[in-house]
Amino acid sequence: MAYSKKFLQEAYSTMTTIRQFEERMIKEFMAGNIPGFVHTYDGQEAVGVGVCSHLSDTDIIGSTHRGHGHCIAKGCDIELMILEIMGKQGGLCKGKGGSMHIADMDKGMLGANAIVGGGPPLCNGAALSMKTLGKKDVAVSFSGDGSSNQGTVMEALNLAGVLQLPHLFVFENNHLAEGTGDEYAVSGSIAGRVRAFDIPCDEVDGLDFFAVYEATKKAVAHCRAGKGPYGIEADVIRFDGHFIGDPQAYRGDGELADLRANKDCLKIFRARVTGEGWLTDADLDELDEAASQAIEKGVQRGLSAPEPDLSELTSDVYCSY
Amino acid sequence: MSDAQNQGLPVKTYREAINEALHQEMQRDPTVIILGEEVVGGAGCKGSDEAYGGVFGLTKGLGPTFGRDRVIDTPITESAIIGAAAGAANTGLRPIAELMFVDFIGVCFDQIFNQAAKFRYMFGGKAKTPMVIRATAGAGLRAAAQHSGMLHPVLTHMPGLKVVMPSSPYDAKGLMVSAIRDDDPVVFLEHKVLYETSGPVPDELYTVPFGEAAFLREGADCTIVAFSAMVNRAVAVADKLAAEGIRCDVIDPRTTSPLDAEAILESVEVTGRLVIVDEANPRCSLAADVSSMAAEHAFSSLRAPIKCITAPHAPVPFAPGLEDAYVPSEARIEQAVRDVLGGR
């Protein structure tokens, strides 16, 4: 057996937690229990979990507006996430950031980011700290095909190359930047862009947890060994809209049904581990149920929690006044 | 517009008014183009030919009518969008660049304030940059810190930029037409809570001039200057106080650059009392700007300290209760008017 049972259970547990978390956030949003704009990660779980399986709390990740999955994969507390996403007291960011700005510095989660392309330059900074302070940690930025078109991302790639920073650039190409396809909006290829900066880049099937896991193992080892930045372009799909409530008029006939039937990374994981005889369906069902219960507990806590005190309106603008 | 002028006019939303201005100006002038993210939507996808028409639907119908060569979906690439608009504006087109949320201006600010805004002056008056930057601004949708800003003070600070922020559907259409026809770079800020508000809007093309304030209410007791979505709140307060016999001038400058200082000062000379309402942060703001103008040029007319009702010096919070407390409320405006009137 190539992977321990415990490892596989943990990986699946995190993936199913993300899936069910997002499905529940959609339900709660539609019920009016979540304010604002929410962008869900369902469909891309194998990437977030495959990458973050190699990271500890002292490694840093920079996320995107689609950040819930990265948070969970990096170990953020899901109850505190739910409080945050509902805008409640005690949330990860005291209810002041919300879904698009959710962060947890204690877990090395440098933040979701509502500015497309905002994360990679920041992760260069995190990587610079690691390099300067002599740590063996690694910074990982998550970007989409959309942000691969931002100048900030191109500049971050160049600087990471120039300074040989321990920065893994993960591009999750879900082929949709909001409602614009990468075939139209990305001239050339994302992996090609990374390589143009003399940064090695692997292209992986982002629906295959094991492919992502193995590619990241190699990439993270490269970064930790002081050999400079690395890139991964993961080919994935997005199960839902750009935001919750998006009518998704850009989808073709039968497109979503096809994705759910044939490109579900959880089903692919299940088929693999049961096929290999590594885990049974019963093992996996148990993990599904445990995740469901944990999310239910978090949602109930979120629904009954009070909103932040009004005194929080002007706190935390500065460290000192 | 007076009520008499409104009679018989079709009623349209703020969104429809802007959309109509874009349609009619593109029809009138083939050099007008639009570029931005999802202005048509669905490029490179298998679904609808017009998946969005702008994320808030402002450019709906323009893609199918004028084609993707004139209504251009761009990648998410704000610096390249604004730079292309500025360069095209210098060389024969009249581009309208959509930034989606004004907060995204941070990504491309160089192209705006170092490039577009300065061309004419730096090049000795030889350049023209007839471009419009459209963006949605303001709090109210629980969109939190990076999607809810009011950045007009930062933009107004920049010589060479014109800054427009309509508060009504009528002004939105007329100011958009003026913006498109203006030879300078214009930032056109649409407040997101105003999109569904409605009012009388003529079907035909008309312009609302820049630098000409609108008096929404008239009264000799107090001057209220309000911007963008705050105008409606100021009007509501003025109407409430009018029932008690307190009469206020409610002034909507409509453009912050140029600013109709004369209208504000003339009003203050009569009322002697000034309340300024702005959703932006207070430091180095339009509220501070108008306040200093009144103190400098109408000091002898002032009968009470000027009051500025603004957001606090903090980013926009996410939680609904915090966001509601962040934006100036009618209660705060009313209290300010009563305060400058000595507790009436």
Structure description:
- The complex is a heterodimer of chains A (about 325) and B (about 350).
- Chain A contains twelve helices and seven strands.
- Chain A has helices at about 5-30, 45-50, 70-75, 80-85, 120-130, 150-165, 180-185, 190-195, 210-225, 255-260, 265-275, 280-305; strands at about 60, 140-145, 165-175, 175, 180, 200-205, 230-235.
- In chain A, strands 1-2-3-7-6 form a five-stranded parallel β-sheet, with helices on both faces. A two-stranded antiparallel sheet of chain A has the order 4-5.
- With about 350 residues, chain B is of the alpha/beta class.
- In chain B, about 35% of the residues lie in helices and about 20% in strands.
- Chain B has helices at about 5, 15-30, 60-65, 80-90, 105-115, 120, 150-155, 170-180, 230-240, 260-270, 285-295, 320-325, 330-340; strands at about 10-15, 30-35, 70-75, 95-100, 130-135, 160-165, 185-190, 200, 215, 220-225, 250, 255, 275-280, 305-310.
- A seven-stranded mixed β-sheet of chain B has the order 3-2-4-5-7-6-12, sandwiched between helices. Chain B has a five-stranded mixed β-sheet with strand order 9-11-10-13-14, with helices on both faces.
Descriptive labels:
heterodimer, A: 321 residues, alpha/beta, Rossmann fold, five-stranded parallel sheet, 45% helix, 10% strand, B: 344 residues, 2 domains, seven-stranded mixed sheet, five-stranded mixed sheet, globular
